[in-house]
Predict the structure.
Amino acid sequence: MKRDYEYVVLGLGGFGSAAAYWLARRAGSEVLGLEQFELGHVRGESQDHSRIIRLSYHTPEYVELAKHAYRAWADVEHDSGEQLVLRTGGLDFAGRVSAIPLSNYSNSMDAAGVPYERLDAGEIMRRWPPFRLSDDVHGLYQPESGIAMAAKANATHQRMARKYGARLLEGGQVGDIRTEAGEARIEVDGVTYRCRRLVIAAGAWSNQVLLSFGARLPLTITQEQVTYFATPHLADFQPDRFPIWIWMDDPCYYGFPAFGEAAVKAGQDAGGQEVTANTRTFEPDQPALRRVIGFLGDRLPTALGPIVYTRTCLYTLTPDRDFIIDKVPGHPEALMAIGGGHGFKFASLIGQILSEPAIDGETPHDLETFRMDRAILQLQNPPTHYMV
Ligand SMILES: Cc1cc2nc3c(=O)[nH]c(=O)nc-3n(C[C@H](O)[C@H](O)[C@H](O)COP(=O)(O)OP(=O)(O)OC[C@H]3O[C@@H](n4cnc5c(N)ncnc54)[C@H](O)[C@@H]3O)c2cc1C
């Protein structure tokens, strides 16, 4: 059995599956992917039918990155023959004074040349009658926003990585990791694999993996959740007539048209309890659920209906919510990516970006904001700013 590879990917959730795919497109059977659970498991961050994808972002840099993200998804769709992104249009809305200023989003889209519309409450309700909004509410509508089909996209990345020759191992316990002399050695259930470049995409387990590198990041893991509501008005919430939406305030809520279930989905962003990957449960947080129901009752009442299910999920939050995409400092053989609880829309792109320094030694993308040695990540107890 082959034990020496050019590239090993540690963690096969959203980012790792994408990295395995993009590496295998160029390096075929020189790619080994390692996942501690079964592929498609629900203990991490990337499960479920849908994630929001949007160009609308709080800095021009993320808007530019999102343009590349759409291109990466289109490339995988073309290569695999699967649809992975569904454009529904997207509404960012809030009261005139809100914790997340809509002007950050409009200014960023202006700077990046992305078209959008400014809508007042009346216009929002005219276009999408289920909304019930007071006069002080305003919004931004961007037509490219929509749904990244999370579970399907992960399965597609995995299937295509294997098609290109990658070996993906499930259920292996990764033990010791050592890097020296331009290679990494990874022990899995007593077998040592060697590679030239190690890509770490371990999500909520990142700090456990970093122990082997003598490093630790000030990450906060939270247990988040989304709930599917079987609205009796399903026709009003079809993806061709109802957008993804984000309420840009603190608390911040978001939701989807009917997709994946005969129900609409809604949740609160960064509203969950702090946990670890080991202490998390799969039990719905009832107060958090009541907050979402309260929000929908006020502003989107016909979305409510019997609860189909609430699905829990983890966020791996950096204190500034910016991603980490970088070499592990002092270990040029190892690269790492962390998504800050908003990374899925970029998953394929991040996989592609990780493959570039791994194979070529460099990437055309400017990753300065995502450095692992940025100042805030050097603090033991950094201030956190999650509402961006
Ligand atoms: C409720 C919720 C809603 C979200 N909504 C959005 C959204 O609308 N839009 C958006 O863009 N993003 C969203 N996100 C964030 C996005 O889903 C994550 O940023 C993204 O999925 C992170 O993927 P990942 O690969 O880093 O983590 P994961 O998918 O968790 O993958 C990490 C993998 O590494 C494996 N692993 C860890 N350690 C080891 C080891 N030692 N050996 C082997 N395997 C290991 C784990 O088992 C896991 O499979 C949301 C997240 C949640 C939870």
User: Anything to note?
Assistant: The mean pLDDT is 98. Residues 224 and 270 are 7 Å apart (CA to CA). Residues 10-16, 34-37, 44-46, 51-52, 174, 201-205, 209, 224, 226, 267, 313-315, 339, 341-345 surround flavin-adenine dinucleotide (CB under 6 Å).
